[in-house]
Amino acid sequence: MKGRDMDELELLRTARPDVPSYPEPAREKARAALIAAADPGSRRRAVPAIRRPWGLAGVAAGLVVAVVAAAVVRQAVTHDGAGAVPRPGSATAGTPVNAAQVLSLAADAVETRAAVRPRPDQWAYVKKMSYSSVDRGAEGSVRVAGGGRAMVTEVWTRFDGAREAYRGDNMVDDDRHRLHVANLDHDADETTPIEDYARLAVLPTDPGKLVKKLCPHTPSTADPTGCVFSMADKLLRDVALPPRLQAAFYRVLATLPHVVVRRDVADLAGRRVLAVAEAYPRDFQSEQILLDPRTYEYRGERLVWTADPNEAPPGAGRTPPRVLVSPTSAQARQEYTETVQLAAGIVDHAGERPKS
Amino acid sequence: MTEPLSDRVLIERSLGEPECFAALFDRHSAEIFRYLARRVGPDVAEDATAETFLTAFRKRDRFSGERDDARPWLYGIATRTIGEHRRAEARRRRALGRLDTTTAAEPFEELAAGRVSAQRLGGRLAGMLGRLSAGERDLLLLIAWADLTYEEAAEALDVPVGTVRSRLHRARRKARKALGGADPLTIGERSPA
Predict the structure, then answer these.
(1) Structural domain total, chain A
(2) Gene3D superfamilies recorded for this chain (chain B) (predicted)?
């Protein structure tokens, strides 16, 4: 039995593809980026070089975004990769505010709300608008998502993970007015929404304990921004997130050294939002969590370039793009993606909308 | 030349002297690149390798201090680099109503399992890989292509060794079926004939 068990593995081993060795230019580039990331001196020197040319572009981009969402889309689509056109939704749009202050206000506001406990047969409902300036097409080619439009789609996911339904814009020419329901096939490593809820429900709501739980290997003296921010970004969009945990996340974000908050940022739908951004000065990208400025509810997420890697190839103090695209498809590096929630809630049936 | 220090010592030292992390890159980047190249093709692997080490650098304070060898940890980050991208693509496609995964824009993990590997592996083996869940595929390839032990694979995927064994069992069972062999569980101890 043991000998037979080895068959598939042996087969795979012998079929192990021959690959070239790590090309020297790529190796040098990656190493230089790592050195730059590791060297606080080069980082300090690099900051003005990145910031100055893009500071003005950022302000201009903010204005563009503020006018109307449709303009944002056109702007992004016509962006030709030369790096001269202001980037939509720039990381520097909006007015910086005191992050700690705003986020603790946000925590106090959401904390008092009643928690909901979803049943496995209920559905998580989200109406979202999404836009991506690039899309990976067949054979690694790059094309614009949905013909360059922002897409509006309503999605229902059953909490037991068994089914999913949608209505609205799609890329397969399905009738956008009809409700499409499908059974979901789960990977072994994917959890269902109700399992996610169970995990969320037992997380500590004390900010310090929450960080310890989520980032067990981060020493208490080290910066947990990278660890916490990506988790907050994922968990805050959960429609069944317990309000006390939501508040705890805001309180944790309030303490992080590399988080900045800007108000009066226009989102994809043209709404004014607060943008909570993970901001490392040397980074090419900025990830942002968008919050409602009055209710402090989750509104969406955004990923923007803070500098143009095509115009300024990674050198001292700069990290290369973190988006995984072929280095030959330079156009793909002009990435800007945003997904905003227009409505969200828990409903009993697919096709049903939450009563507001 | 790199100092003859263990990976653990290098990483610990890099918490105070970040530039020490470059030695870890010198030590392991060629190997990580080869693994990524096998999975996603050499072009994408260039960016993915850079991404893997930058992520590792940023999260170096999360490296478990109990081990001297950082390879399983790095393989884990490399695997998640592929996986996160795949999941983001899948989520996006679902959100856009693309529930059918067989049409046009395939996520790059599928490119790896399907197209790239299909050219290199031959259709049957590629088809077998395609039928596994992402977690099963990661595990099988970490063992077959990165030569990790069960314990190292468990560390890379951040799951208990028991989970590795049961997942591997399931993966092999599926693989055998897909390759046209009989399912060992239905044969039991009888002759496979």
Answers:
(1) 1
(2) 1.10.1740.10, Winged helix-like DNA-binding domain superfamily/Winged helix DNA-binding domain (1.10.10.10)
Beta carbons of A136 and B107 less than 8 Å apart: yes
A234, exposed or middle or buried, with CB in 10 Å at 0-12, 13-18, 19+? exposed
What are the tens digits of pLDDT across the range B67-119?
889 999 999 999 988 876 666 556 555 555 444 333 333 333 333 443 444 44
Residue of B53, B61, B171 lying closest to A34 (CB–CB) = B53
Instruction: Return phi, psi of residue A116, to 5°.
Output: -115, 145
Residue B192 lies in a domain: no
User: Which residue segment(s) compose the domain that A249 sits in?
Assistant: 40-115+192-335
**Which pLDDT belongs to residue B19?**
83
Residues 67-86 of B with CB under 8 A from A: 81, 83, 85
User: In angstroms, rounded to a whole number, what is the distance separating the alpha carbons of residues A173 and A171?
Assistant: 6
Q: How many domains does chain B have?
A: 1
- Give me the amino acid identity at B44: V
Extract long-range pairs of A185-189: CB within 8 Å, 24+ residues apart. A186/A161, A186/B133, A187/B133, A187/B134, A187/B135, A188/B133, A188/B134, A188/B135, A188/B136, A188/B167, A188/B170, A189/B83, A189/B133, A189/B134, A189/B135, A189/B138
The residue with greater pLDDT, A306 or A275, is A275
Least confident of A21-30, A278-287, B25-34: A278-287
- pLDDT of A309 above 80: no
Residue A160 lies in a domain: no
Within 8 A of A19 by CB-CB distance, chain B residues are 34, 37-38, 42, 45
Check CB contact under 8 Å for B34 and A22.
Answer: yes
Tokens, residue B1: 């030349």
Reported as a pLDDT band with limits 50, 70 and 90, residue A148 is low
Per the domain annotation, does A297 fall within a domain? yes
Pairing of strands A298-305, A285-291: antiparallel
Query: Which of A274, A305, A234, A344 is closest to A95 using CA atoms?
Result: A274
Maximum C-alpha span of chain B: 62
- B1: in domain: no
Chain A contact for B90 (CB, 8 A cutoff): no
Question: Could you tell me which chain B residue has the CA closest to the CA of A138?
Answer: B105
Helix, coil or strand: residue A254? helix
Which of chain A's residues have a Cβ under 8 Å away from the Cβ of B179? 8, 11
